[in-house]
Amino acid sequence: MDKETRCVLIASDHGGFELKNFLVKELKTRGYNIEDMGPNTYDSADDYPDYAKKVADAISNTQDGGMGIVICRNGVGVSVLANKLKGVRCALSWNPEHTKSARNEDDVNCLALPADYITKEVALQTALTFLETPFSNEERHIRRLAKYDNTGNF
User: Fold this and answer.
1) Could you tell me the pLDDT band of residue 126, with boundaries at 50, 70 and 90?
2) Mind listing the domains of the chain with CATH numbers?
């Protein structure tokens, strides 16, 4: 990924707010172009669908292969929501090895992180792996993704 030009979208709910802010700071320090899609302030009553949808909508509407990171307490809600939008392939992951496989084989363009089940350091390594691992472009993976993409839009 060309980290200076491609924008990485990131959002969380209150459960992932602290982790999101940590990742924004660390990824910017490493030269990534980050767009923080919220929340900007902590609100214990906010709802993850509002923020995960912002990231998923932006990925779904981009032509240049946008990438996003969504965070909530267990990562499930944000990943389920993100995967409802056309063109979004979101993987819930909690370690770099799993994320590498998801990028390499499934060309995921959105990473869901479970703030309650991952340390900041592991989350950072997982995010970096997500951003730096290319899709393999192997024929078998391309064939499988085509089948996935042809299952219909929801």
Assistant:
1) very high
2) 7-149 (3.40.1400.10)
